Amino acid sequence: MTLTAPGSVQADSSAGGPVPPCPARGLVCRNCGATFGLIAQHACAECFGPLEVDYDPELMKAVTREQIEAGPQNIWRYVALLPVGQDQADRVSLDPGMTPLVRADRLAAELGLTGGLWVKDDSANPTHSFKDRVVSLAATAAKGLGYTKIAAASTGNLANSVAAHAARVGLPSFVFIPSDLEPGKIVQSAVYGQTLVAVDGSYDDVNRLTSELGETDEFEDTAFVNQNVRPYYAEGSKTMGYEIAEQLGWRIPAQVVIPMASGSLLTKVDKAFRELTAAGLVEATEWTIYGAQSAGCDPIATAFDNGWDVVKPVKPTGIAKSLNIGNPADGPYALDAIRRTGGAVARVGDDEIVQGIRDLARTTGVFAETAGGVTVAVLRKLVESGRLDPAKETVVLNTGEGLKTLDPLEPVVGPTHRVEPSLRSVRAAGLIG
Amino acid sequence: MTLTAPGSVQADSSAGGPVPPCPARGLVCRNCGATFGLIAQHACAECFGPLEVDYDPELMKAVTREQIEAGPQNIWRYVALLPVGQDQADRVSLDPGMTPLVRADRLAAELGLTGGLWVKDDSANPTHSFKDRVVSLAATAAKGLGYTKIAAASTGNLANSVAAHAARVGLPSFVFIPSDLEPGKIVQSAVYGQTLVAVDGSYDDVNRLTSELGETDEFEDTAFVNQNVRPYYAEGSKTMGYEIAEQLGWRIPAQVVIPMASGSLLTKVDKAFRELTAAGLVEATEWTIYGAQSAGCDPIATAFDNGWDVVKPVKPTGIAKSLNIGNPADGPYALDAIRRTGGAVARVGDDEIVQGIRDLARTTGVFAETAGGVTVAVLRKLVESGRLDPAKETVVLNTGEGLKTLDPLEPVVGPTHRVEPSLRSVRAAGLIG
């Protein structure tokens, strides 16, 4: 199965507008540089290295700000920089993206940041996490490659997004989750009425199982969004970087703090900034990328601290479950981006994560899931340790919604007062004199 | 306290753009027609009838589609049709609005609707309900009227939105909730670090208490968003109607199904359609408005069935808690809009509500709270009873997020399969041969 030939100009889309050329010209191995067509494969046939999409730089340079700004208010405004979805009729998407970039002056003041602070808030996406971006790309690639079903292994956000995408278009989906997930996360994934398989095992067990299932005849026509179509899936994360630059007025921020699970999001935001610069869509400026992990799952932080190029797997613990990938596939590439841009990695414990959620909510009105708490707590730590420059403009990424991870907050936040329904009781509580 | 004089052209805003004139010229009593300035009052001094904002029709007619389309991707694009916020620097807002209008072809096919079906999905707002629209207007009016604090009585969505708005700008807020709310809803309201008062009583008790508190010296400088600044607050709901028309290509849909608690949202969507028509922003076409209630709280449905002009209060029960207002302030006005446009009201029980949530999620990928389940189940009932024309274009409103009301779903949705992490177990479960 192969996608449309590179650069080919297609007929007008069903929506009536002109269809831009597809800038993707193939897949390339990030290890050995071997090239392949736009196929359904995520590992290099030569060296087993990870494949990523390779673009035609001339087609990227032909893209203009005006062309993007005239597009829809979602990720597809960047379709001329993406590998799939050029024809609107081909998209399988909840149309995520163009989430708010929130100015966080009050948090900046508390932390002593004078260069400006922003929160890129992806809890505003349709299923309330950044996973809608990658699933929209993966599902569209799956359709283009001729697959008739989609599937994923997940601990929550990805499960939710895959099932919702499948429901929107009536595509069968198969989502595999550990059976001991919180009941709330199971409801979120089950409500869409798609196939939801609870697996008695850890997330790693679930992942291994879906890898095996991908090899069976029964799943031959199934795209596993973060396995066989992973190169397309991963490109969805670039749109978060594009949006930050566009929302700042076509400018790359000096410093960005990004949570890391597999490390893929961090590498793709860096890639987005490099692409925008190379395409002449922003002025060439320097940026520094910082990685955030929880102390309960810190393999990339440990590799960074020790100067390692490789990442040693860990067994994850702790409340930031959406970041709990003990063997991060993109760890080495994340380390590379962080080191190349002069950044750093920091880790924070569960108490700091909860405090990070509360600090962000209290000062911005943005209610983040635990991963967002990790990022805000790491921001604080980087400022306090002098590794992040308080005089430079900084963006932190919130990748998901606080309503998805209420459990760690329940013991620590609650009503400030409790009264009877009478003025006398309100007076006794000290609210009035 | 009075807002800016009607129609006055202000200086350029801090954002640098021209500031449109404010079209509001005062408040008017919906009962007796008495007029007042733009003051902080919600009941007529003559007859105790409800006050609403009165606009200068000439200023409304001067507004163009191009002017609106050039505005921001949120409710403030309609500022030339709103009573407050003309100067961007004066706004107290999370910038809600421009939420997706989702084409629901699969649900339409199941229900036999041939004229086109859309879901206006307000779960995409910053705190994931339509309340962000009204709170943005109320908080902005509060600031303009010189108040230094905001407050509300609420059972959830409003509490969340008021506390988040207050947190964003660092304004003190006081939110009063019944103490027996679900722990999740308490967390959502408490995480913003504002004053949260749990009251041992029903929502009606809480409401009475805040009315009394509004009369105390201590709360003299406090705007109660749905009490003393209610005329401005309520206008926020108009933006949902404006957006539907604009997103359809400046066209009013033939049929709209709207959930009713106080009835205010329904009356304001109807008002938005009337204003757009009068201002020449859409062609004059006919529309029909349908009201949705739960069987556990159906005072407006009962009044409709019996041909009453007044609404007899009930004691609310049932899972659609955000709609559980037993004595709906805008009930008579909602009845008027429904009857004037040839619509109807229907009610659905808790099982139908859960089924409505599941039907919507399964066919559109939109996960609604119980109020959205009410609306979808009522849509089905109206079609089946022949009261809604299947050949006409229909829009249903989802006012909130499914993650906020997980409890009723937990017993009925879950994994479709449970397996060990082995191909053998997957085979035994019938997923592969």
TrEMBL record, chains A, B:
Domain Tryptophan synthase beta chain-like PALP: 93-400
EC number per UniProt: 4.2.3.1
Entry GO MF terms: threonine synthase activity
Pfam families reported in the protein's UniProt record: PALP (PF00291)
CDD domains noted in UniProt: Thr-synth_1
Chain segments annotated as coiled-coil in the UniProt record: none
SUPFAM superfamilies xref list: Tryptophan synthase beta subunit-like PLP-dependent enzymes
Keyword terms, alphabetized: Lyase, Pyridoxal phosphate
Top EC category: lyase
Cofactor(s) recorded in Swiss-Prot or TrEMBL: pyridoxal 5'-phosphate
Domain of life from the UniProt record: Bacteria
InterPro entries: Ser/Thr_Dehydratase, Thr_synthase-like, TrpB-like_PALP, TrpB-like_PALP_sf
Family per record: Belongs to the threonine synthase family.
Protein name: Threonine synthase
Source organism (scientific name): Blastococcus carthaginiensis
Name of encoding gene: thrC
